[in-house]
Design a protein that fits this description.
single chain, four-stranded mixed sheet, alpha+beta
Length: 118
C-alpha cells in the first residue's frame, strides 16, 4: 500500500485551513470597512482620557502612533457602538494580528488638564 493517500489528506487539510484563515481575515476587514458596528470581542480595549470632538481626537494622535508603532499608519473610525482604532489599515490575512482597539474615553471633569489623573 502506498503512503500517498495520507499525504493527500494532509495537503487537503492544509489547503482548507489556509482557505479558512484567508476568508476569516477578509470577512474581518470587510466588517471594518463596511459595517455600521464593529464586534467589540474582536477588538482590544484602549482606555484613555479625552473626548470625541475633533480637537480631542487630534490630541490623541501621538498616543495612537505610539500604540501602533508602525510606519503603515492607522485609521480611527466612529461606529454605532463606539470609536475604534485600527493599526495598519490594510487588508490582512492574519486576523489574529489585526490590532483593532476599542477606544474608551474617560470624560474629564470641567477645567481639568487632559492626561491628568482623575
Amino acid at each position: 500500500m502506498k503512503p500517498v493517500f495520507p499525504m493527500r489528506w494532509g495537503i487537503r487539510a492544509a489547503l482548507a485551513l489556509s482557505f479558512l484563515v484567508m476568508m476569516s481575515g477578509t470577512a474581518e476587514w470587510l466588517t471594518w470597512v463596511n459595517a455600521d458596528r464593529y464586534p467589540t470581542w474582536l477588538a482590544r480595549e484602549f482606555i484613555t482620557d479625552g473626548n470625541e470632538t475633533s480637537a480631542g481626537i487630534i490630541e490623541l494622535m501621538p498616543a495612537f502612533q505610539k500604540l501602533c508603532g508602525n510606519p503603515g499608519g492607522f485609521a480611527v473610525d466612529t461606529k454605532e457602538n463606539g470609536m475604534f482604532l485600527r493599526c495598519d489599515n490594510s487588508p490582512s490575512l492574519a486576523i489574529w494580528d489585526a490590532r483593532v482597539y476599542h477606544i474608551v474615553l474617560r470624560q474629564q471633569p470641567e477645567g481639568s488638564i487632559p492626561g491628568e489623573r482623575l
